[in-house]
Amino acid sequence: QVQLVESGGGLVQPGGSLRLSCAASASIFSIYAMNWYRQAPGKERELAATITSGDSTNYADSVKGRFTISRDNAKNTVFLQMNSLKPEDTAVYYCAADRYRRAMVGSLSLDYWGQGTQVTVSS
Description:
Layout: E1 4-7, E2 10-12, E3 18-24, E4 33-39, E5 46-51, E6 57-59, E7 67-72, E8 77-82, E9 91-98, E10 112-113, E11 117-121
Parallel strand pairs: 2-11
Antiparallel strand pairs: 1-3, 3-8, 4-5, 4-9, 5-6, 7-8, 9-10, 9-11
């Protein structure tokens, strides 16, 4: 069983930046794609960013050019750098490990999920 623990959320003003971290309890990045999802109140959980085991990255149109996903294999940690934040970025952010790339077809039945971290963008 792999545990994922997110951190780095908080309250930030519009236009500000945050960096989220997701620490994995095991070395899985060579096998699993890692995803950042977000869920705003009353809305469905949406995929924001993905980094594959081969280091390919993908982003939702709503965050492209503002968010960057990366990872540190030595520390078993995935990051989400969020710049130029907008009020509509307010959500709980989750990281998820995905061995069989189910996220690509819109499935939420991924292998491991973190508990989430709240990001609030407000003046």
